[in-house]
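Protocol step 4 of 6: record predicted structures for both targets in the notebook before any analysis. Target 1:
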Amino acid sequence: MYGKAVLVIATTVIILLMLFGNAKVRVFSVLVNQIKVFKNAKTEKLSWWDIVCFIIMPICLAIILTIGFRCIIDDDLASVLTTVFAFVFTVLFGFAAILVGKMESNNDIERKVVGETFVSIVSSTILSLLAAILSIIILETESEMAEKIISCVVYSFSFMIIMLLLMITKRTFLIYNDKDENEQK
């Protein structure tokens, strides 16, 4: 048991150094930009309702699922989630490449919405990648407390990704729907 604890600590330290020690892979700026997307379009101030809906409520739902309903992610679900998150990651990554072409629009509002949508796609991609990694970790975790914590984080990321995907879908519809309407006029 002592040897395994040392391996877990060493692995954690190495992962943290890899993710936070190298400026080329730090993704905090993307996540900070995602928070900036949660602004009220009219007032240009941070929308606390958006923060609640996109961050706080997903965390609350995850806590209710893991603690209240005791829905801990088991090995079967972790395997499925790993596949789902890998798929979401791949699809979003491809979609981001398609959306980049819309960033050269002459319409300032469209360019801003496309930029914000791009940030949300990248944020969802990062959350999907992290959730997939955590789902793999659950497969190897033997500690019940660790499984609860990781399950809560994976559920939180899942609900955040769902909310971001809904926002991305709506914004994409508006971007391309407005273009179609303008071309018809």
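Target 2:
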Amino acid sequence: MKVFSLVLGQCSLFTCQLFKYHFIDKTRSWDEAQKYCREKHTDLVTVYEETDIDLSNTAGLYWIGLFADTWRWSDGSSSFFRPWSQTFPVYHPGISKCATLNKDGRWNTANCNSQKPFFCYNNVILIKENKTWEEAINYCREKHNDLISITDAEQQRWVQERAKNATSSHVWLALRFTCILEVWFWVTDERVDYKNWAPNVKMDDCNMSGAMEAGGKHKWIKEDDMMKFNFFCSKS
């Protein structure tokens, strides 16, 4: 069934901005949902265009980031894609109205104080410039948030699809090897529970950081810090 995307990519010559959605199966008012998303992710989702995301096995209505202040998006984004299931709702000052996503992908309005589950998104940017690992992490921390970590199989699948847009053979991750403790760790402080290493990789060399293949099976490898690759920055 054709429904509407909560995940988009916007690419230019040097960057590719990506949005990963998270379904939050907790009921909140629209304001509470917005606060939750901004604290734990980036914001309530902005919907840009039509694509295939199957909500047919779900039920109910879900908050998205559109609210009735001349119908604008929570994160300030511009999107004129508005698949209302009714006549375009006119904004009336003093009446609290927010937008919901239906299971068929259409939109309705609802009282912003009603309790509903919702979608948040995380913002990730592929930087299509070749930099050393240290240059990459400094770039991310200065301009965005940090290099990305991959902590589960779902996130791996999502990132590897976007890595296909890279202009280098590999992309840097936030993985680093410490010779003192002889362990790999995420510099973003996540636990290294999920792993996707290429087979037969010798893991105990110093001055090494983790990179992912931009193509092929998208396995992780260790690389000398001075190699120059594209990289992902997180913004959440």
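Step 5 preliminary note on target 2. Helices lie at 30-40, 133-143, 153-163. Confidence is low (pLDDT under 50) at residues 1-8.
Proceed to step 6 after PI sign-off.
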